[in-house]
Amino acid sequence: MLIIAGLGNPGPKYQNNRHNIGFMAVDAIADEWNFGPERAIFQAKVRAGEIPTPNGPVKALAIKPQTYMNESGRAVGEAMRFYKSTPADIVAFYDELDLAEGRFRMKTGGGAAGHNGVRSLMAHVGPDFRRARMGIGHPGQRELVMPYVLGDFYKVELTWRDPLLRACAEALPFAAAGDDERYQAEVMRLAPSPKADPRKASRDD
Length: 205
Known about the structure:
The protein contains seven helices and seven strands. It has a single domain (2-190), classed as Rossmann fold. The protein has helices at residues 21-32, 72-82, 116-125, 145-149, 158-170, 172-176, 180-190; strands at 2-6, 39-41, 44-51, 58-65, 90-96, 104-108, 130-135.
């Protein structure tokens, strides 16, 4: 079972926050591939379906933990154990401050880089899950980070956010087939990132 995990915070208060772009990606994927209805299980909202690949369809579970960001790993860990999956079967979508707005990078393993949702996943499933890092840029000053990530996307940001969400969904068969490098390239082909704002500090690794 491929577990497609979005990181975010539950409830209408947070639904349009930059920190919830992982939830948005999972919703876009489940809609694109006509996953089944949403249900509550594993302390999460989940939808099940299949992703076509050249080697045949891959069963997938789109999961949005409802435990708040800091405890995201609990729900994903429950799902992984239930389906007897491994960390390599988990693709986690989340916001990345250290990537410029609209950039997208796939990575397996590594540290948490200050992201509490990633830290929780590492605690519950180990570090070697696959990471779909969605760049939201950096506000430029450390003390502005919290209000920035917990703030809603501005209307102008939707010009890169919405194409990125669509691209993550449309290109997913490459990730489902295990080709993360090709998936990354296809997402960026479908949704080229805007020019980086020189006022925002960001890096690509």
